[in-house]
């Protein structure tokens, strides 16, 4: 059976429906799972919907030790950590040896089977920025991640141990960010970066932002700077995307060549652009009708 693609999202605003439908459209033989809440149960009419609340085992162990160090509100940062616990429990209870995780603002334009073929021998594939590494950070972006059950168990345990026994690291990173003129911002990505940095010698890791079969996954459609040194052309504040044969393409100004994307990540303010970049079949939005 193909490795499922899992989204995690609460509420049912219109944009998430576009992302789910397009993921299902370009991956017709793959199970698309939404771990959601009662507000979006209606999406179960076209993908596999499961109640996030059924997968909370072990979450309280982390919630009790979490210390907030972020300009974002506590609820948002806690939800970012929560996604890994509910994904772990879903995988465990449904006997999934591996899963792809996607942020709910990714639009996919291609079957992700090539990634499954490449990543099937690794424990974790996550977006990485090795050139941005320093004493405190190994920068990662989990917007498109492949992870095995064994690895996600280790990761969730690592979160608990980090906040329970290594607050010194959390505070040190906060102070380093202040000295650099920034605002302390410790998130699940900070913790995952530390996990990857410490475990990359004992676990098989891969970078989900690497080009595979001549195409790649976008890390952030708002960003000109790419994860592998690219400098993409921008238009109106986002990547200057054109479509060729149904796939988004953008010019890398550094290499003067066009990159083909398998997915675009409409992070933050770009979410409102999602309907305009949807290329799947026309549909009557379920999100506009009562569940």
Characteristics:
about 290 residues; alpha/beta; Spore Coat Polysaccharide Biosynthesis Protein SpsA, Chain A; seven-stranded mixed beta sheet; five-stranded mixed beta sheet; 8 helices; 14 strands; about 20% strand
Explained architecture:
With 291 residues, the protein is an alpha/beta fold. It has one domain (5-288): Spore Coat Polysaccharide Biosynthesis Protein SpsA, Chain A, CATH 3.90.550.10. It has helices spanning 14-26, 59-63, 74-93, 113-119, 149-165, 167-179, 188-199, 274-277, and strands at 5-8, 32-36, 48-51, 98-102, 106-108, 124-128, 140-148, 205-207, 215-217, 234-235, 238-239, 242-244, 247-252, 257-265. A seven-stranded mixed β-sheet has the order 3-2-1-4-7-6-8, sandwiched between helices. Strands 5, 9, 12, 13 and 14 form a five-stranded mixed β-sheet that branches. A two-stranded antiparallel ribbon has the order 10-11. Helix 3 (74-93) packs antiparallel against helix 5, helix 5 crosses helix 6 and helix 5 (149-165) packs across helix 7. 37% of the residues are buried.
List the helices and strands and how they pair.
Elements lengths: L4 E4 L5 H13 L5 E5 L11 E4 L7 H5 L10 H20 L4 E5 L3 E3 L4 H7 L4 E5 L11 E9 H17 L1 H13 L8 H12 L5 E3 L7 E3 L16 E2 L2 E2 L2 E3 L2 E6 L4 E9 L8 H4 L14
Parallel strand pairs: 1-2, 1-4, 2-3, 6-8, 9-14
Antiparallel strand pairs: 4-7, 5-14, 6-7, 10-11, 12-13, 13-14
Helix pairs in contact: 3-5, 5-6, 5-7
